[in-house]
Each structure stands twice: as structure tokens, then as C-alpha cells.
Design goal:
Shape: globular
Number of helices: 4
Number of domains: 1
Order of helices and strands: HHHHEEEE
Number of strands: 4
Structural class: alpha+beta
Distance between the termini: 95 Å
Largest sheet: 4 strands, antiparallel
Oligomer: single chain
Radius of gyration: 28 Å
Amino acid sequence: MIRYFGIAIVVFALACSGETTNTTNENANQQKDTIFVQDTTQSVEADTTYAQQWENFKKAVIDKNAEAVNEFMNTDVIDAESLIETLHADWIMEAFSRSTYNDLTDSEYNEIPAKEFGVYEEYVDEDGNAFESATMFYFEIKDGKIKLIGMLAAG
């Protein structure tokens, strides 16, 4: 009888330790899931904020509001009024006006991680000579804000 009682205690102890392990594993999984949800939520909120900022920047450029555009500038390469005129070139404005934040590509500018908005044009002159032109704008994403940090143009 004592022998059976001892076996019952061992079986009960093992069963309880399995439940503790399962409960601990479930708690750890729930914590991981919670952290993942928090990270995902923060990422979605940041993307929404940046998407809204991109739309605000576009509106300021389209409205030729240099004061508002200046709020998105962090560069000595180009001033707000020159940027507005550059973006208002027909071939650039067409792509710019229909762009979204998600269209910006990951890039870098002077070794700084950046989002890039680029436009490219190919054309042939009346003599049949082919030409290409490209203009790229680089935006730093820092402290919850989008700031233009550079621009390159070729062609």
C-alpha cells in the first residue's frame, strides 16, 4: 500500500511539473506574442505617421508653399523654393504627385540610411540621340520625422 502511495505521489509530482512547464512555456509564448504585437503596432503607427508626413510634404510642394516645404528640409544642398521648382518639372511632378510613402525605397545618402524618391526619364532628340535623366531625393527618417537631406541629379 505504501508502495502504491509512493508511486502515486511520484506520478502526481511529474504531472504537476509538466503542467508547470506547459504553463511556463505558454506564458513565455504569450509574452513573445505580446512583444511581437507591440513591435508590429509601433511599426504600423510609424508607417502611418510617415505616410501622412509624405502626403503633407507633397501638398506643400504642389501648393508651392515654401514655408511648409522648409519644415521638411535638413540640407544645404537645395533651398525650399529651388526644390519646389525642381519638383514642378512636368516629368518629375507626374511621378511625385502620384507617389506614396510606400513607393520610397531604402537607400543611403553620404552613409546615412535614407528613403529615396527617384524619377528617371529617357528621351530621344530629333537627331535620334538617346538621353537619360535622373533625379533622386533622399529623406532621413529620424525622431519620427521625414527630412530631406540630399538630392542628386544627372543627365
